[in-house]
Predict the 3D structure of the following.
Amino acid sequence: MKKYDIAVIDFETMNEHTNSPCQVAISLIKDLSVEYIYNSYINPPNNFYSQENANIHQIPKEVILTAPSFDSIFDKIEKLLNESFFVVAHNANFDISVLNHTANTYNLTPKNFLYIDSVNIFKYFHQNISVSMNSLCDIYNIEKSGLHSAKYDVEALSKLLISLMKNEGFSSFLELIQSMKTQYIRFSKLANVQYTIKNCIY
């Protein structure tokens, strides 16, 4: 049974491969309110420590190497995502690909779910402006100094989505997406790339 309207997910990766997640966070939203936030560091199967990535996520190598493995928290991630009607992420193909590729590395099979890229949502309602996380935080007056931490990213994106729904007069996320003339709903099983998607929208 679905308990939440949206699960907002974000991964940080240890290197350029999508099977190198070093942090995951999931924010669960119901009735325009954040109900729960899950956050965990991950020791990924592909654990070459890229300094280029570290400059972005700022997670020390020793924190990652002593974190739980992906397969040990996979059931928790699956449970949270499948308790929600929709999964949302900013530049979502990247995050869903991290989930799928890492699961495949462990011979795990994620359940299929519906996801929507919040980049498309904000482009629809804010035409002709930047919809990077930095720009959106400025527009909605949300603190952005913690961006690139998975936990802070899902907190910020949750606030952005809730603010958008309230500003546009919608009482639910379903009402918001039903109002859009173009639908951007995708199936998670169709996203699976092996390398980090460059130029992620921040």
Remarks:
- The chain is about 40% helix and 20% strand.
- The first helix runs from residue 51 to 57.
- The chain has a mean pLDDT of 92.
- Strands lie at 4-13, 21-30, 33-41, 84-89, 114-117, 186-187.
